[in-house]
């Protein structure tokens, strides 16, 4: 698990199989892990119903990304079913992405 608001650097070097000799080629990348969006809300309509029988709509509004440079803000909705043994599994319902609006 990566920590929010942290930059990680990754490097890959090419080595010869068997001898381990450095082939002099490498690539690197830096990745900034964003924090959770701030403010905003999620609403569910209807607020009560029966799974499979009723259609539920989840709507987000007012979310502000951790930093403006992290647009577009990407998010997904899911649910966590109750379980007898305490395990929690997130089930992805649908993935969304806003352009540059929030």
**So what's the overall shape?**
elongated
The share of residues in helices is under 10%
Number of DSSP helices? 0
Output the radius of gyration.
21 Å
Mean pLDDT: 76
How would you sum up the major sheet? Answer: 2 strands, antiparallel
Strand content: 35-45%
Alpha-carbon distance between the termini? 26 Å
Poorly predicted regions: 98-102
Question: SSE order, as H and E?
Answer: EEEEEE
Task: Count every beta strand, where a strand is a DSSP E run of 2 or more residues.
Answer: 6
How would you sum up this structure, described in words?
The protein is an all-beta fold and 102 residues long. Strands 1-2 form a two-stranded antiparallel ribbon. A two-stranded antiparallel ribbon has the order 3-4. A two-stranded antiparallel sheet has the order 5-6. Strand 1 and strand 2 form a beta hairpin. The chain is elongated, with a radius of gyration of 21 Å. The chain starts with 5 loop residues before the first strand and ends in a 5-residue tail after the last strand. The C terminus is likely disordered.
In short:
The chain is mainly beta and 102 residues long. It has strands spanning 6-15, 22-33, 41-45, 57-61, 74-79, 91-97.
Which helices and strands occur, and which strands form pairs?
Elements lengths: L5 E10 L6 E12 L7 E5 L11 E5 L12 E6 L11 E7 L5
Antiparallel strand pairs: 1-2, 3-4, 5-6
Q: Which descriptors would you attach to this protein?
A:
single chain; 102 residues; mainly beta; two-stranded antiparallel ribbon; two-stranded antiparallel sheet; 0% helix; elongated; disordered C terminus
């Amino acid at each position: 698990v990566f920590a929010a608001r942290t930059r990680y650097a990754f490097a890959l070097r090419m080595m010869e199989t068997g001898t381990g000799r450095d082939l002099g080629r490498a690539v690197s990348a830096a990745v900034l892990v964003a924090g959770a969006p701030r403010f905003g809300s999620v609403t569910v309509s209807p607020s009560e119903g029966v799974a499979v029988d009723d259609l539920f709509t989840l709507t987000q509004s007012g979310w502000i990304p951790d930093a403006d440079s992290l647009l577009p803000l990407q998010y997904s909705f899911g649910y966590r079913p109750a379980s007898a043994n305490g395990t929690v599994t997130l089930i992805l319902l649908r993935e969304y992405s806003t352009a540059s609006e929030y």
